[in-house]
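Cast an eye over this sequence plus tokens and explain the fold to me:
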Amino acid sequence: MSSFTKLFFLFFFVLSLSSLHSLTLPSDVAALQAFKSTVKPATILSYSCLGSWNFTSDPCASPRITHFMCGVNCDTSITPFRVIQITLDPAGYSGTLSPMISKISTLVVLDLSDNNFFGNIPSLLSSLPNLQTLTLRSNSFSGSIPPSIGNLKSLVSLDLSHNSLSGYLPDSIVSLSNLRRIDLSYNKLTGSIPKLPLNLLELAIKANNLSGSLSKLTFDGAGQLEVIELSENSFSGTLQGWFFLLPSLQQVNLANNSLRFIEIWKPANGKSDLVAVDMGFNKIEGNLPVNFASYPVLSSLSLRYNRLRGSIPAELGKSERLKRLFLDGNFLNGSPPKGLFSSKGGVSGSLGDNCLRNCPVSSDLCLKLQKPTSICRQAYGGKPTS
């Protein structure tokens, strides 16, 4: 072998060693190995992302022809390479979430959605200073939400919906100053809602066991909140007038709770972004609040199956933006406003199962029959309904 050939092979060998040193940080690799080891092997199919995780190859090396074909993304602009994203496919993986995942300090996204992970959410996840997206949706995680979650200062999106989480919501969530979206729907959470992060845009805690009244302290300072989805819980008492005056509020769903009374204040200077309100299937008593008509862009309103009585305010019939109105299943009386049956597009929904008179049978709003006169008389103390 000539000196040139020897020199060439020596250079190639040194270059190879240099490349090895520029690959993934060993502690990141060890964390990925620990993560895979807590998943039941029988649930790791050969064609799945985890099935391609073969540690004879480096997780961040490219091209990924046969190994680590999906599930892991890396930052290869730095040496050694660092893992920044774990996003699994919905392949039915079953196992626990290894606390070792907390060793990947550069992790930005952790998404294990639509699988069968179970057990507790490790409190050590709070050791991930760069985590922006935590999605554990549609698994079988149980236990409480760890209070240490408040240490995830970079978190922007938190989705733990469709699991079996129980206990109270930790007060520490207020510390998540960058959080914009939180979805804890379809769990078994109890108690009340603690104070919310100031920059939150969307709050969804549908179908849990939350109870008590909605406190102003919870929403104090949440001036960017646009969407509130709290249906299918056990909230009770009075929903006070400040609620619908939250400055950025657009959509509210409080259906299927046990609210008894609502106060509706007029928006300041007639300005509001409120578009849709659903408070159906509660226990709301009293008259239908006329001030709903003061919300300039309100297009959908549902108060169906409550205990409302009295007439439908004429102002609702004058609203040009209202397109959907569901008031069925109450004890409303009198004649509905003629404006609801305008030929200019009209309003869809239902006014049936009330005590109304002169509801035009030609309108889809009146397809559902009204309550029998005997029930209406009883509801009004035996007096005729006007």
About this structure: Residues 21-94 form one domain.
